[in-house]
Amino acid sequence: MAELLIFLATKCAFLFNPDGYRFVDSRIGRSRGDATVVLESSVLRMEFFRDRGQLLLRFQPVAGPPRDWYSLGLVQGLVTGVRPKSEVLSDEWAEFLGKHLPELEARFGDPQQAHVIVDGLREQAKLRAKELFG
């Protein structure tokens, strides 16, 4: 858990402005240091998690189905057209998030655009699955 909190505090402090994100959930695994921290704005939910020693992030529209989560790599693929090889959180990922979060918030916050972005994320997920598994 400490590793997640340190990453958030040192690399993602921009999330915690007065109109920004708030902590809504956290969990600590029983082994290997796995942990989860969920942050939420009025539009987007982000789950930062440590799984098998790697820090990762996934997104969910607050107004969307609770089962639909989208990885940071899928989001980058939608925004830039290029999906990364690694989705492990890093300084570069924090910079990407800081740069593109206002756009993502605006797009997810507009009901008409939200539908388009979710369809795009689902398409990115299909493309990634096809690349990985044929």
N-end to C-end Cα span:
36 Å
Q: Biggest sheet, in brief?
A: 5 strands, antiparallel
Shape: globular
**Total helical elements:** 4
Helix/strand/pairing category: alpha+beta
User: Which bin fits the share of residues in helices?
Assistant: 40-55%
Number of spatially distinct domains: 1
Strand order in the sheet with the most strands: 1-2-3-4-5
Query: What is the average of the pLDDT values?
Result: 89
How much of the sequence is in beta strands?
15-25%
For the CA atoms, what is the radius of gyration?
A: 15 Å
- Secondary-structure element order, N to C: HEEEEEHHH
Low-confidence stretches: none
The count of β-strands is 5
List the helices and strands and how they pair.
Blueprint: H1 2-11, E1 22-28, E2 35-40, E3 44-51, E4 54-61, E5 70-71, H2 72-80, H3 91-109, H4 111-133
Antiparallel strand pairs: 1-2, 2-3, 3-4, 4-5
Helix pairs in contact: 2-4
Describe this structure in words.
- By secondary structure, this protein is α+β, with helices and mostly antiparallel strands.
- It has 4 helices and 5 strands; from the N terminus they run αβββββααα.
- The protein has helices at residues 2-11, 72-80, 91-109, 111-133, and strands spanning 22-28, 35-40, 44-51, 54-61, 70-71.
- Strands 1-2-3-4-5 form a 5-stranded antiparallel beta sheet.
- A hairpin with a 6-residue loop joins β1 and β2.
- The termini are far apart.
- The model has no long low-confidence stretch (mean pLDDT 89).
In short:
It contains four helices and five strands.
Keywords:
134 residues; alpha+beta; 5-stranded antiparallel sheet; 4 helices; 5 strands; 23% strand
